[in-house]
Amino acid sequence: MGSVLTELESAYYSSIKELKGGGVVQGKIVSVTSKEVVVDVGYKSEGIISREEFQGVDIDSLEEIDVYVENVEDEDGRVVLSFKKAKQTKGWRNLVDNYKEGDLIKGTVLRKIRGGYIVSVFGVEGFLPQSLASFRNISDAELIRKEFHFQVARMNVAKESFILSRKDAVRMEREVLRKKIWQDLEAGTVMKGRIKSVTNFGAFIDLGGVDGLLHIADMSWKKITHPSEIVAVGDEIQVKILDFDREKGKISLGLKQTTPDPWVEIDRKYLPSSIIKGRITNIQNYGIFVELEKGIEGLVHISEVSWTKRFVNLGEIFAIGDIVEVKVINVDPKQRKISLTIKQLECDPWEDIENLIAIDSQAKGEIIGYGEGCAYTELENGLEGVIYNEDISWTKKISRAQEILKRGANFEFKVLGIDKSKKKIILGRKQLEKDPWPEILEEYPVGRVLETEVAKIVNFGVFVKIEEALEGLIFSDEIDGEVMDKLKIKDKIKVKIMRVDPDSAKIGLSAKIDESS
What pLDDT digit, counting tens, does each position of 447-474 carry? Predict the structure, then answer.
């Protein structure tokens, strides 16, 4: 009997593992309570693990697990184990055996702490300093439990600690991606990019580590004046690789090339004299741009807006977004130009001008502009007339029409002529009154001495008022210097008539009068 017990004891003790604290062994889950997980590790007593260590783990799916031996025997004679430390120990061995400083590694951000973040790598917690985090425009809530690539910045094997860098990992990722992009780059390929910056001549686009230039000419099939009409910083767009130079690091991109060219065979679609509707997209002082379809615009030049008006304020007549009816004048696919007209939708009133206005008739009009030696007026019937300076007054020499005919003011005119070839209605203002020069010649003969009033003093002489609507000129050499220096406006001065010229509406005077004669 004694020999049998001895054999049984020997067999029992030989089956018991020799456990040492600080090692990792394999165990089998025996039972699970609300607070503990009991694990058989082949020792004389079973081990205990706190249930809290299994947070986020489906215990029911586990049978055998690796555990870390913290204490071979506690006060109750039980083995104290750790599921969490086993994972950390294995993770640390994996980290040390397979990675070195400078390598890229995946990790999960666990929590934020003072000065940075705690990151889990293979179940081992490392430190990510704030200065190496490089998490821009990302909230902490968006980071937690998210996986990223990190660079192993420093590893202390003795202390089983390590420091990570997201900043250097991003740089390494970009460099790897940049090399791959350059390696795979091919003209004609369509890629996704993000707008980094916008300039007057185009936009720079980040293709994922490599920048390319999208020139303004390659943004849209329609004409644009600034890249901001098409793109904005931060936009993600699809672009086509037009050309590239690996040595110089330059890439030319195209946006419009990702869609068919709408100008192909456009001359067959929009025939001359065809009438269509379009939307006004741009208003310039020289005309309006009308979008006929996406990417196709035509120009209505200011001269094609009205048959009768020379001065047209396009901003007062049209607004961006207006739908207008236009007629096609010409289509030039090579130059990508379509000339349009609005006025040719109606008949040219100049073809029947004689029935609209007659010579020697009177007409009322508003002053709308000025030209060289003339003023322009819009008549009540919508026609435009011109009045030359010499037809404004019988007695005054007019050098600038705007001195008499103010813009926006309305005046009566007499129709002097109709120039059908140049589409001009010639008007006169002075012709509404009787020519006073026959009476002036009789009233003011050469040699007559008059007392006049100084009206204007200029560097070449003095203008004096002879009567209400009649002035004369005393040139500087016809007036004594001392007298000239003392003269003021409205001073009285005695003059002698030297010449009278009805054709130029001038009366020449002299202040040098021989009183004895």
Answer: 899 999 998 899 889 998 988 888 889 9
Q: Which long-range contacts (CB under 8 A, 24 or more apart) does 88-93 make?
A: 88/123, 88/124, 88/125, 89/24, 90/24, 90/66, 90/122, 90/123, 91/121, 91/122, 91/123, 91/124, 92/122, 92/124, 92/160
Q: How many alpha carbons lie under 13 Å from residue 194 in its C-beta half-sphere?
A: 5
State the sign of the Cα–Cα–Cα–Cα dihedral 274, 275, 277, 280.
Answer: positive
Tell me what percent of the residues of the chain surpass a pLDDT of 90: 37
Task: Set out the domains of the chain in order of their start, with CATH numbers.
Answer: 24-98 (2.40.50.140), 99-171 (2.40.50.140), 185-258 (2.40.50.140), 266-345 (2.40.50.140), 349-432 (2.40.50.140), 437-510 (2.40.50.140)
pLDDT at 343 over 60: yes
Asked whether residue 374 carries a pLDDT value surpassing 90, the answer given is: yes
Helix ranges (H only) for 206-334 are: 266-269, 314-317
Query: At residue 89, what are phi and psi to the nearest 5 degrees?
Result: -65, -45
Question: Cα torsion at 73, 74, 77, 83 (round to 10°)?
Answer: -70
Q: Are 470 and 431 in contact (CB under 8 A)?
A: no
Instruction: Tell me how many degrees the CA angle 485-491-496 measures, rounded to the nearest 5.
Output: 85
- Residues 286-297 have pLDDT tens digits of 999 999 998 899
- Among positive and negative, which fits the CA dihedral 277, 281, 284, 289? negative
| pLDDT tens for each residue of 210-240 | 888 999 999 998 878 899 999 999 999 999 9
Show contacts of 40-44: CB within 8 Å, 24+ apart: 41/17, 41/67, 41/69, 41/79, 41/81, 42/15, 42/16, 42/17, 43/16, 43/17, 43/19, 43/72, 43/79, 44/16
Q: Among all chains, which residue has been given the structure tokens 């065979």?
A: 265
Question: Average pLDDT for residues 107-123, to the nearest whole number?
Answer: 90
Q: How confident is the model at residue 516 (pLDDT cuts 50, 70, 90)?
A: low
Range 433-436, long-range pairs (CB < 8 A, 24+ positions): 433/394, 435/394, 436/394, 436/395, 436/469, 436/470
Where residue 451 falls (left for φ over 0; alpha for ψ -120 to 50; beta otherwise) is beta
Higher-scoring residue by pLDDT: 160, 57: 160
